[in-house]
Specification:
Structural class: alpha/beta
Shape: globular
Strand content: 15-25%
Helix content: 25-40%
Number of helices: 5
Order of helices and strands: EHEEHEHEEHH
Strand order of the largest sheet: 3-2-1-4-6-5
Length: 180
C-alpha cells in the first residue's frame, strides 16, 4: 500500500500524475492520497481503474508534517493485512521494480526495533557505490520523500506522544482525527 501526500505548488506544477504513473509502473496497486487544500492531484490517469484508491482533501492546511501524519493514520487504518506501508511525497519518481524490491528487502530485515527503510536517494548521497541497500551515518534526514514502514513501526510513530505534539518547523495546526 502506497500513500502519497500532495501540496500546492507555487509554480502550478502537477507532479502528482508523474508520481502516480511511476508508482503504478513500479507495481503499486493500492493508493491512499492525502491532499492539502488547493493541491493539484488530477485529473487522475486512466490507470486508476486498475487500482484501489482512497483520496482525501484536508478541510484546512495542515502543513507538510501534519499532512504526512494524517496520511500515516489513514494508511494504518486502511492497511488491513498489508504489513508493508510506503509513504511518499507527490514529486517522487519510482524505479520500475520498487514495489517488489521493497517487499524483498524488507522480508530480510529484522522486525524487532525496525524503524523505516528510505527508498529515496537525494543527490547529496549519490556516490560511486554499487546498487543495493547501504547503511550511512548522518545527523540529518534529507526529507521523508519516500519511506517504507512495517505496520507496527508506523503505529509506533503515529501513537507516540512526542510525534503527536510536534507541529513541524512552522508550528502548524494539529493534524485532524485520531490514530484509532
Amino acid at each position: 500500500m502506497l500513500g502519497i501526500t500532495t501540496a500546492p505548488r507555487p509554480e502550478c506544477a502537477n507532479y502528482f500524475n508523474d508520481t502516480f504513473a511511476s508508482a503504478f509502473d513500479a507495481g503499486f496497486r493500492e493508493f491512499v492520497i492525502r491532499s492539502e487544500p488547493e493541491s493539484i492531484c488530477g485529473p487522475f490517469p486512466a490507470r486508476t481503474a486498475a487500482c484501489s484508491m482512497s483520496a482525501t482533501v484536508n478541510p484546512l492546511r495542515l502543513g507538510n508534517y501534519g499532512n504526512w501524519l494524517a496520511l500515516a493514520r489513514d494508511l494504518y487504518r486502511l492497511a488491513g493485512d498489508d504489513e508493508i506501508i510506503v509513504t511518499a511525497e507527490d514529486d517522487v519518481i519510482f524505479s520500475p521494480d520498487t514495489a517488489a524490491k521493497t517487499e524483498e528487502i524488507m522480508a530480510g530485515l529484522p522486525k524487532e526495533g525496525f524503524g523505516f527503510l528510505s527508498l529515496y536517494s537525494s543527490s547529496i548521497y549519490q556516490r560511486a557505490i554499487p546498487d543495493g541497500v547501504h547503511h550511512f551515518s548522518s545527523k540529518c534526514l534529507w526529507g521523508a520523500c519516500c519511506l517504507a514502514w512495517t505496520k507496527e513501526s508506523l503505529w509506533s510513530v503515529i501513537t507516540n506522544p512526542f510525534f503527536l505534539k510536534w507541529r513541524g518547523i512552522d508550528n502548524n495546526p494539529p493534524p485532524i482525527g485520531n490514530p484509532n
